[in-house]
Amino acid sequence: MGKPDAEGHGPADGLPGLPPEWGRVVVPDDASALADEAAQLRRELRRAAGGRSGHLALPLLVLMVALLTTMAGLLAVAWPRASRGTDRPTPAPYAPPATVAGRALPALDLVDAAQSPVPLRGLLPAMIILTDGCPCPEQIDEAVAAAPPGVAVVTVAGGRAVATPPTAGAGARALADPAGGLRSFLGQPARPGTLTALLVDRAGTVTRMLPDLGPVDSYRNDLIALAG
Question: Which phi and psi (to 5°) does residue 109 adopt?
Fold first, then answer.
């Protein structure tokens, strides 16, 4: 063990800075020498806890609430950002339906400029062009000019307002779809600046859908096939 310091206050290698009223503190070389003191301290703590159980209930409750609040704050900070909602949902990539071709065109009644009903199936075979995404008169005129005799080109506007009819071709018709039945049949919304077209044979079967009408050469052969 250490020796007392020059002033006799305790061992030079003991614990410095302790209050004088604690007396001389001796640190044994073997920790097992403190077993009796440790056992006595545990007994005293148990007796003190038993006598003050009622007084400790409120402090323990406050401690538990504080602990739960801290854990909730840590969880909110650590929660992955990917699982949080955003103000701007990421739009899904556009994918035209693959099941329209080969399906039967529904028996829809559209309206003309006088708001008179026009059965769409009564105009077949036809190229039906939806113009609610774009008027695009130049592309429509090209389609009308390319259509062979016996194949109608029908433009369909959304709502009740009928668009200006195509300028060429005896088989051209301009109609409107107030109920949105044709757009619902396609199962896709209108895209700004884009014409969507359906090619339907005389039996009422959709032979091809063009999500973007594109140049005449991309569908000329389909128009010729409708006339056969």
Answer: -105, 115
